[in-house]
Amino acid sequence: MMNYPELFLSLPQPECNLLPYDGIVNDYGIIFSKQEADAYYACLKNTVSWRHDEVVIYGKRITTARQTAWYGDDSIQYAYSGVTRTALPWNTVLLAIKETVERHIADISPAHFNSCLLNLYTDGSEGMAWHCDDEASLGTNPVIASLSLGAARKFSFKHKQTREKLNLMLTHGQLIVMHGTTQNHWLHAVMKSTKVNEPRINLTFRTICS
């Protein structure tokens, strides 16, 4: 099994696939200026309707340390981890970010994102366990655009069969896109770290199929 080193992608090449096989992940680098990213981060942190997430694991309902919010078109619903959520209506800031993201990835996906799941990590003690976004409501081979704001955090991929790993350090204003068969073959996670003392907001834009 090969373990890939940390990748600090200061010179992104969106046309290159970061995964060695069985999926596609493209890095678009930092898509906002520091001033824009700072303003978006502050606005989202202070105005989004954050709440601690509830998930069902092995039949037991638990409350996560991180906080989440779900926004989208027309009160669209999304079920994951045993819980169904109803989207809050888009606000102007999220719509502006969404339009910028869609413009950047138009070369691989001209589709319209109809929802966004946001996660707020207070510091490095909060993370996201290994999982994949393979819910039926996302359709076959979903396109998921992930934007990071705030503290830099390690984001890892692990192949479901070979256990091969790839680690990325995602920074303030950076956009990556997971598509192709990625969710079928790879798990991903936000790794915890005692060295991270600042919050991070992650926005994952996706399309819920009707």
From TrEMBL:
PANTHER family linked to this entry: ALPHA-KETOGLUTARATE-DEPENDENT DIOXYGENASE ALKB HOMOLOG 3
Molecular function terms, GO-annotated: catalytic activity, acting on DNA; demethylase activity; dioxygenase activity; hydrolase activity; metal ion binding; oxidoreductase activity, acting on paired donors, with incorporation or reduction of molecular oxygen
Example GO BP: DNA alkylation repair
Gene3D superfamilies hit by this protein: Alpha-ketoglutarate-dependent dioxygenase AlkB-like (2.60.120.590)
Keywords: Dioxygenase, DNA damage, DNA repair, Iron, Magnesium, Metal-binding, Oxidoreductase
EC number: 1.14.11.-
InterPro entries xref list: AlkB-like (IPR027450), AlkB-like_sf (IPR037151), ALKBH3 (IPR032854), Oxoglu/Fe-dep_dioxygenase_dom (IPR005123)
Database matches in Pfam families: 2OG-FeII_Oxy_2
Domain Fe2OG dioxygenase: 112-209
DNA damage recorded as keyword: yes
KW Secreted (keyword) present: no
Record's protein name: Alkylated DNA repair protein
Required cofactor names: Fe(2+)
Source organism (scientific name): Neisseria wadsworthii 9715
Enzyme class: oxidoreductase
Gene: alkB
